Amino acid sequence: MELHKIETNGTTLKLVINGNLDADGSRSAQPQIDDIIANQSHNEVEVDFSNVRFLDPSGVGALVYLYKRLVEKQRSMRIEHVTGQPLEIICLLRIDKAIPVNSY
C-alpha cells in the first residue's frame, strides 16, 4: 500500500491510498499518518479510497486513529470515493455516522 499526499488548496490535504488498507498497509502508513496529524497547515483531510479494494480491522483502526487525532486539533476529515467491501465495512461499523463518507 502507498499513501500520496496532494495539496488541493491552502486548507485541504488530499490523501490518496493505493492498495489494501490492511495490517501491513496500516503499519507502513503510520509514520505518514503521524506526520499529517503533526503538520497543522491543513484544516481538512480528504482520504481518497478510489484505489482501495480491501479494508480490515487494522485499516479501520488507522482511519479512526487519524480521525480522532484531527478532531482533537479542531480539524476535519472525510472519506471520498469508497465502494465495495470497504464501504460495506464502514457502514456495518457505522463509521459513516462519525466520519463523512462519500461513495460514487
From TrEMBL:
PROSITE patterns: STAS. The lineage of its organism: Bacteria, Pseudomonadati, Pseudomonadota, Gammaproteobacteria, Vibrionales. Residues 15-104 form the STAS domain. GO terms for molecular function: anti-sigma factor antagonist activity. This is STAS domain-containing protein. InterPro entries: STAS_dom (IPR002645), STAS_dom_sf (IPR036513). Pfam families: STAS. It comes from Vibrio marinisediminis.
